[in-house]
Amino acid sequence: MSSAIKDTQNMIEEVLDAYPEKAKKDRAKHLAANDPSGQCSACQVKSNIKSRPGVMTVRGCAYAGAKGVVWGPVKDQITISHGPIGCGQYSWWSRRNYYNGQTGIDTFGTMHITTDFQEKDIVYGGDKNLDAALHELKELFPLAKSIGILSECPVGLIGDDIEAVSKKVGKEFGCPIVPVRCEGFRGVSQSLGHHIANDTIRDYVLGKGTLEKTTPYDVALVGDYNIGGDAWASRKMLEEMGLRVIAQWTGDASINELGIAHKAKLNLIHCYRSMNYICRHMEEQYGIPWVEFNFFGPTKIYQSLRKIASYFDDAIKERTEKMIEKYKPHMDEVIAEFRPRLEGKKVMLYVGGLRPRHTIGAYEDLGMEVVASGYEFGHNDDYKRTYPEMKEGAVIMDDATLYELEEFTRRLRPDMVGSGIKEKYSYHKMGVPFRQMHSWDYSGPYHGFDGFPVFARDMDMTVNSPTWSLIRRKR
Amino acid sequence: MKLKIKDHNELFQEEAYCKQFEGKKEFENGPTEEEINRVAEWTKTEEYKELNFKRQNIKINPAKACQPLGAIFCSSGFDGALPFVQGAQGCVAYFRSHLNRHFKEPMTAVSTSMTEDAAVFGGLNNMLEGIENAYTLYKPKMISVCTTCMAEVIGDDLNAYIRTAREKELIPKDLPVPFAHTPSFVGSHITGYDVMMKGILTALIAGKKDEPKEKINIIMGFDTYTGDYHEVKRLMRTMGVDFTLLSDASATFDSPNTGEYKLYPGGTPLADAADSINARATISLQKYSTMKTMEYIHKEWGQNAQVLPMIGVKNTDNFFEELSKITGKPIPKEIEEERGRAVDAMIDSHAYVHGKRFALVGDLDQLLGLISFLLEMGAVPVHIVCTNGDKKFEEEAITLLNESPFGAEGKVYINKDMWHLRSLMFTEPVDYLIGNSYAKFLWRDTGTPLIRIGFPLFDRHQLHRYPIIGYQGVINLVNWVVNTILDEMDRKTMNTTSFDVIR
Question: To the nearest 10°, the Cα dihedral for A410, A412, A414, A418?
Fold first, then answer.
């Protein structure tokens, strides 16, 4: 064991001392010093396991995964939060999945629609009124292409048969009515919600769309939720390299696009965590290969573009090289502008499903080093992809609690922390530069050639804001 | 910065992107422009309104949240209190992010992270381990427990669970652990505030009954304006009244930046809250968010318990007159002067507000206060939409409207949502809209200028730091209302001869 790993392990043990015995034992499995080579067996973290009760976990639930991530951004579907009022209220347009369309007429992304369960629904069952609710929606929103029923905790507990209602009404309407069993108590985090939602896309929508003609260059852009327009920035590059994006999943997605993705020649997957399930299905069922890519920062963008091009003919490869040549000067310009101000700065990341590893390259392009990284709801395969990206002895943290984040911050003294809204303001109080890496702090896009300059600008404004130095700290 | 960097605000207006959006339509299989326009126009009609108002089984853009959010907000205002939610963990993540987004402040709360096994066997184990972990790690002075709908559906018995935790000595004997059952399928966030307040007071006052003291309790209600908390404290000091503020959320949601993150930045001291049973009287500034609490204080404590809302001039007048009666202290000159300044502001600005027609959406107590204020200004409240409103509220709002000739057009819609309001604003247009950040969708659809007052306010910064209560609050309300009207007037006259510098 190297000294870097040993030092980090000692630090982790010190932090863990505050927990009661049982919680300490459990948390120890989720925190480790990084070993990029994979030789050190003690350096692997456990993941996708229940959070301990009573500690401030950052995690959400299956409903959050299905609503906020997978189904919520499908713009021409009406998504019902089926159950009591809260879940739909709190998840209402909180992820900035940009879309084009006229809201309330042909698109519904920024709306909050719910069956608003009352006590009588719990006693007598909420499926009685669901049929009527679907009819009311069909009347008021005739252009909706589909209705998704996302069940909240009580629906599963009282045993409502939403599948039966969906089946009946779906036949009547002649459009998909999709029951999504994403009750919040299922599974250990958002992650199961992604899986459940993927399965419903597979069962109710995939393969049912219309596409008149296909070309050898058809691809589907999967697992990009178009936060701040990310998917559009990615699509722009894919189109410029000569590919035809026939489906965009699920930011700015339409039901038809979900229905024709199986006609793509290649699936391009951005958020592996939330969408690998459906890619695997399309591979098995339709023989469509899939490839992971990373459009954060020029280094990873060039690599990814070349990797994607390698699946196609020389014409595409040539266009790709030309495109890289065209944009490289601009990327170099961005780096020349910002790198001097960011060189050597240390970053700590704690985000959801892919950013803890995907953004590392972009930080490195700016001369910054990621000293700690972790996932709210990553699985073993996410961590396997992360270890080689990180330096030896860096902190790897799974399902970190607010307490751990604070303690690691004290000890590692990062110049910047990237995490979510729940962490943002405690970091502001600590006086540690902070950037929200779920929603890009209402900025973006961060993907692609158009996104990197925004990313660089935002990291610079975070680290180098004069406001941090105004804090009059207690001695 | 040398480089010109374009973010989403500019990028997607560019030709390359506009072309991309056009091209993407090939795969979207969407309706034609013609169809979209036809349906869009139809949604503005009487016919659509009727259809919209007929629906019974679905809410579209409702203006309410669920009980536990109110409960943990209430708990947060007590010093050293850790809000502890028995249920599935996603809820607490949502409560925290919702409050984070409104206040731009950290929010402490823990969940017992119940999953499938708890659904089958009950949540006792989660409670026991949760309470031990929470106490050991976060060292609270009080753990205030409420539930999510999951715990309520499976019937977790908080009282018994907490007793078990005490018997197993997972927490110190004297640690207060108040609790409240807060199912999300009953009431709304204001109900949750109410039952948690009652739960906390019940737990803290046990065995504290003593000689009555010359002080009064003030309960804020579900008030998300941190400015209001500072304002009440200032006014009480100006009156020379000894008081206890229940619960003081300003410490938690408006704490100074000192480079140090505090889990418990302050709030109502637990000893003061415990002593509240010995006060001379309790005044609540909100009726509907403190109903059960006030009934409890009146019946069980035998205290003079009054609801004295403080939004608008008449309400504030009434507050000080009653406070003066209760305490025997005269209203000081400073407060009388403040009143004079507020009235002066209203008179100076009245011409622009007079006769203007308003739509309002929000919480019960706030709506009543705003109606009262608008009527005082000579404005005309037209559509009043309250998703969590009940019959009592409806009656009270109608009575209030009937007291003024300016209230004649006002109609109150309880249990209705912002999609109902959209229909109303198309079929009977108004000049201005008052609501929270989500009301901006109505602003966009109908072109009615929005004055942001309410909860949540996500898309404008710092508004919640200004008081909306008392005479200072009146001045702020005048400011927001009249200056929105003037902004709109400037926008509309930009290219006309009426583009005036002095208004």
Answer: -80
